[in-house]
Amino acid sequence: MKKIFIILSMVFGVSLGFSVVPPLISPQTRIDGKEQREDLNRHIEQTDQQIQELQNMKIGYEGKATRLENQAQRLQFMNKELSTSQKLWRLAESNREAAQKIQEEIDKLHAERSRLVNQRDSLP
């Protein structure tokens, strides 16, 4: 039971009453500040990679949305192409929504990265 509580606290960042313990390190493990700093740096690098991957995905969705909007604008005034234009507008909106959700995840990762940097900088 104690093991599960420790694992859950590491995953969800729940405080167990220990001082500055990075989420990837068990509170029972005694390591020095240098090792903690290295672990935090690795976690920060992983977070940076995730942010970069999500930003690339977001750019892709935004680009596709722009292309669909341009195509919809061209078709909306052509004979018998109004329904196609409307479908393209909906697809573009769907891509914009996906890009917005990705941006929300990026914002969460930036907040997590800031927390990790602050935690690393507060180490002795």
Give the proportion of residues in helices. over 70%
Strand content: under 5%
Count of beta strands: 0
What is the overall shape? rod-shaped
Q: Which sequence of SSEs, written as H and E, runs from N to C?
A: HHH
Q: Low-confidence parts lasting 5 or more residues at pLDDT below 50? A: 1-22
Overview of the molecule:
This protein has 124 residues and is mainly alpha-helical. The N terminus is likely disordered. It is rod-shaped, with a radius of gyration of 23 Å.
Keywords:
single chain; 124 residues; mainly alpha; 3 helices
In short:
The chain is mainly alpha-helical and 124 residues long.
Strand and helix layout:
Blueprint: H1 2-12, H2 33-75, H3 82-121
